[in-house]
Amino acid sequence: MKRAVSALWARRAVRQAYLYTTTTTATSSSPEVGASASEAWDGRFRLHKPRGQHLLTNPRVLDAIALRAAISPGDAVLEVGPGTGNLTARLLASHAARVAAVEIDPRMVEAVTARAAALGLADKLTVIAGDTVEVEFPEFDVCVANIPYGISSPLIAKLLFGPYRFRTATLLLQKEFARRLVATSGDGEYNRLAANVRLVADVRLLMDVSKRDFVPMPRVDSSLVEIRPRGIAPGVDVSEWLAFTRVCFGQKNKTLGAIFKQKRMVTELFGQSQRGEGCAAGPSLGALDGDSGEDDCGGNDDGRNRVVGFSEEEVAAFKERVAGALDTAELAGKRPSKVSNDELKRLLRLFNERGVRFH
Ligand SMILES: C[S@@+](CC[C@H](N)C(=O)[O-])C[C@H]1O[C@@H](n2cnc3c(N)ncnc32)[C@H](O)[C@@H]1O
């Protein structure tokens, strides 16, 4: 299954990234990575907010991120969105053997390349010019990044469900997104993003970062989060799990019993289970997040969802099978936000045993 999901990612890597391997031009061998002057933004070009170009300029926070990233001697580090290199400078000065940084803006590519050269650390840095969501990453042990928040969900999906094997990802994320990511089923805030990520990884909050530590100042605060892949098979088909959680968390204020009792839901699931068909686009790996499934497979009944060639009795029998799985799991009266991944996995297994499939 992992291979099928990886293949999806491989197909997405259609845009060829071009590699810049920086060349050493400076003679200095003792980089001044802690110097606050190097973090300041000199305004040499316009920063684009839609690209998430909020530079982290507080040296104490930058030092803390590099420290919390737990880089071991010899590690290969992946950074996403190095910008002018405020964090990159610290990663280059760490025990890491090498750093690969993916940057979409050619002006930033130039800036971080020049920064590494000025520090005398250019030979440790490879800048990959391209879109993080599209390019193929080189092998890495740890990912450390202050990312553009707009790609949080597709980046985490790519890291966790792509072909990569790594120890940790230490990411600075929008605070609200980070809170949803670390939510647990016990606190009643559980959500689709957390359920999908926790299927394959452990997550924890490391620290909060004020919006005042960035230039230009964003509207939101941030939080540093560690994602640690478990490295063991999740015990479910990942594509089916992603489709299943889309349905379960699609109407988060309803109980699972109410969600799976809806006629259009039963009809849609019946159609999928009979035909073995899914959404035309297949599972959306780019969207681990989003609790509204209204527009997706379980959504409107505009005629596509009608099951042709089956009697009312057959649909009614299927409905009984759906209800039977929920009863056996003892989850009909529970809201998805209160249900653990183990319970959800068991429910999916019970559905599958009764011929109920999610695509
Ligand atoms: C929040 S800034 C972080 C800059 C730097 N890491 C820092 O901490 O100061 C995000 C950076 O990601 C880059 N970026 C935005 N979208 C990107 C994408 N899809 N792929 C790669 N880089 C991207 C922006 O150009 C910008 O340099």
From TrEMBL:
SMART domains: rADc. Keywords: Methyltransferase, RNA-binding, rRNA processing, S-adenosyl-L-methionine, Transferase. It comes from the Eukaryota. S-adenosyl-L-methionine binds at residues 54, 56, 81, 103, 131, 146. GO terms for cellular component: mitochondrion. Its EC number is 2.1.1.-. It is an enzyme of class 2 (transferase). CDD domains: AdoMet_MTases. Residues 61-231 form the Ribosomal RNA adenine methylase transferase N-terminal domain. GO terms for molecular function: RNA binding; rRNA (adenine-N6,N6-)-dimethyltransferase activity. It holds the Pfam family RrnaAD. InterPro entries: KsgA/Erm, rRNA_Ade_Mease_Trfase_CS, rRNA_Ade_methylase_Trfase_N, rRNA_adenine_dimethylase, SAM-dependent_MTases_sf. Belongs to the class I-like SAM-binding methyltransferase superfamily. rRNA adenine N(6)-methyltransferase family. PANTHER family: DIMETHYLADENOSINE TRANSFERASE (PTHR11727), RIBOSOMAL RNA SMALL SUBUNIT METHYLTRANSFERASE, MITOCHONDRIAL (PTHR11727:SF12). This is rRNA adenine N(6)-methyltransferase. It comes from Miscanthus lutarioriparius.
